[in-house]
Amino acid sequence: MKITRMDLADTGSPMGLATKILSVEKDLPIPVPIEELARQLDIQDIAALETAGFEGGLLTDEDRSTGIILVNQTAPAGRRRFTIGHELGHFLIATHRPVESGKFLCSRADMANWSLDQTDRYARMEAEANEFSGLILIPPPALRKFIPKGDPSLQHIPLIAKHFDVSKEAAARAYARYHQEEIAIIVIKDGIVKRAHKRPTFPWISVPYGKPVPKASVFHAKDQRSRVASKLSAIIPEHWIDLKAGQRAEMFEQLYPQQDGYALLMLWLEVEEIEEEDDDRTSKERFRDQQQKWR
Ligand SMILES: [Zn+2]
Q1: What is the whole-number distance in angstroms between the Cα of residue 9 and the centre of ligand 1?
Q2: pLDDT higher than 60, residue 185
Q3: Is residue 142 part of a domain?
């Protein structure tokens, strides 16, 4: 590798950093050798993290001349790689400052924090470190070749996870963001909506995080023990999203049960724009009419 931190001196955003690294390291192998990359970028050592309840840490000095990345060694390989990418993100993004001087400590909840549009400085820092890790471990140009044209399917997720040596959730996030169809992938644990990964253009998910999966969802109709992706089935979009006035849409769901009560649920939306004068019903009235039609 020939990249140095000098090459990254003027860059501070996760996308900027990942783009610069990929432009200098054009032949970066897949799976990305994340430990080698970290050492190339002045990380002196990668060692075991012994602090219970945390996934990763970064020890560094005030001017970031060097750093030591700490990783929870009991985590599965894909997650350990993600943690290294995350800590490397903290190291490279100059504005990131730990709570305790010289020492970042990151929990599993921090690693699940993906929402970049938040005002809390700490939460935003964690989301940026995740964003960087996702981009460097699953480089978008390499991913594109891996998303076949046509119908989206959760069956592609384990193939991506294996190819890039990342967790299924990291693969699901990249898949949802870069698929050309309008999709979102909901992460469910024990019937509760934990978070959603979606294309930037996908509408806001109206079911709040921490609330149960809507009763109408295919989630409740499938056997959670069968670890195969279900077929697509139709659902009224308003169970998951609010449509704008004059908008009609079809939505399909696909369920993929995982271990330990986890499941991935894909939402695939097809919006059809309709002239507004056609329809002066409120969104609630349209929902009711549509429900009657489906009954
Ligand atoms: Zn962190």
Answers
A1: 21
A2: yes
A3: no
For residue 293, pLDDT over 80 is answered with no
Confidence of residue 100 (pLDDT cuts 50, 70, 90): confident
Q: Could you tell me the distance, in angstroms and rounded to a whole number, from the CA of residue 32 to the centre of ligand 1?
A: 20
Strand 67-71 and strand 43-48: pairing? parallel
Higher pLDDT among residues 215 and 293, named by residue: 215
**How remote is the CA of residue 203 from the centroid of ligand 1, in Å?**
28
Beta strands of the chain (E only): which ranges?
Answer: 43-48, 56-60, 67-71, 103-106, 183-189, 192-198, 233-235, 247-257, 262-273
Q: What's the CA-to-centroid distance between 55 and ligand 1, angstroms?
A: 9
Give the domain range for residue 44: 5-137
CA-CA distance, 219 to 230, in Å (whole number)? 10
Ligand 1 midpoint to CA 86 (Å): 6
Q: What is the mean pLDDT of the segment spanning 180-206? A: 95
128 and 53 housed in the same domain: yes
> Quick one: 171 and 86 in the same domain?
no
Q: What's the rounded mean pLDDT across residues 66-79?
A: 95
* Ligand 1 centroid, distance to 127 Cα (angstroms): 8
Ligand 1 centroid to residue 261 C-alpha, Å: 25
What mean pLDDT do residues 182-201 have?
Answer: 96
Question: Above 70 in pLDDT, residue 292?
Answer: no
For residue 55, being part of any structural domain is answered with yes
Residue-level length of the chain: 295
Q: List the shell of residues around ion ligand 1, using CB closer than 5 Å.
A: 106, 110, 126, 129
